Amino acid sequence: MKILIRNKKWETSFEKVKLICEVTGKNNIFSIKFSYNGNEVTIQTNNLDNTFKYLENIFNSSLENDSYLKEKMVI
């Protein structure tokens, strides 16, 4: 996983997917917002490292099986 910050957007590159996220934080709670399949996804977390590792595992392991992704992500 590679993360590049440009123009206040986080570009996160996994094996087959690049997410362009908006990350904001307040009182040690972070919100990660990105688009996926035409839907806006927002994830709230207190640990960015673990959350991005989890997203990396989801996207890298199962892009061929889209139903798996829908089960793992709350939209």
UniProtKB/TrEMBL annotation:
It comes from the Bacteria. This is Uncharacterized protein.
